[in-house]
Amino acid sequence: xxxxxxxxxxxxxxxxxLVDLAVRRGxxxxxxxxxxxxxxxxxxxxxxxxxxxxxxxLEAMVGxxxxxxxxxxxxxxxxxxxxxxxxxxxxxxxxASLPDEVAIxxxxxxxxxxxxxxxxxxxxxxxxGSELSRGEAKRVWLVLTLAQERxxxxxxxxxxxxxxxxxxxxxxxxxRRARAGQTVVVTIHQMSTAERxxxxxxxxxxxxxxxxxxxxxxxxxxxxxxxxxxxxxxAVLARTHEAVRAPT
Length: 248
What we know:
By secondary structure, the chain is α/β, with parallel strands linked by helices. It has a single domain (about 1-245), classed as 3-Layer(aba) Sandwich (Rossmann fold). Helices cover about 40% and strands about 25% of the residues. The strands form two sheets. Strands 6-7-8-3-9-10 form a six-stranded mixed beta sheet, sandwiched between helices. α9 (about 215-220) crosses α10. It starts with a helix and ends with a helix.
């Protein structure tokens, strides 16, 4: 299977590949036949309407949710256990909260890192989890996640808590991690943010991949070179809805 996937998708093995991933909750299929890949140093934005399966996809990738079927490869290695996933992915959930009474100093450890400085977290070391704002807590979580140095970084809605100036700094940090060779998969709510940071996008709708590829390719297929990410998003969803309504 791996040889076929490699030949079909890219001349060299991708850092990350999902093949026919499916997740079910009881009798309901939440994700079905999700397939995409990403190379080392690429940033993949997972987009889609609310309820489209974005968080479920990330949870299944990192092993938090069981897969009904499908395979996940990192560096050519098939990940079949939670332990294998834990060695491959650094994961930041959307709704994760810091322990209220634990000092940020304790969470970060004694060493001050450049990553901590870049995200403005050093000044928070004297606080406890309960004393931080949502944006401050997100920055601490980003430091804790990125510091794990896993091959693939998986971030669920990491950008929504920041004002425009803070967002500039956070996006720069994520780009630098990608340039250092980590693959980043990130769910993003704002299309304009995806346009600023993503090398490629995966657009989910109704639990399936409605479109995937580099933004410039999707612009040509679903709009025009001057179309915004919002325009592409709407065009993909409109085509998906038309396909669902079409008689068989």
